[in-house]
Fold this protein.
Amino acid sequence: MRRRHRGRRRRGRGRHAGAPHAGRAPAWLNRLAKAVWLADAALAVAALLTAMLLR
């Protein structure tokens, strides 16, 4: 199973904890990463649900 808080606890810097320390990341890149993470989580949940339903 995947751990839920992946990069939160590395280097406590508020919102950007776990981000590589290269100044500020652009807002669009941050949003893109969040969207990819949310889509990945939703895909995993959907796959789990379909596997449970088709069993």
In short: The chain is about 50% helix and 0% strand. The CA atoms of residues 17 and 28 lie 17 Å apart. Helices lie at 27-54. The radius of gyration is 15 Å.
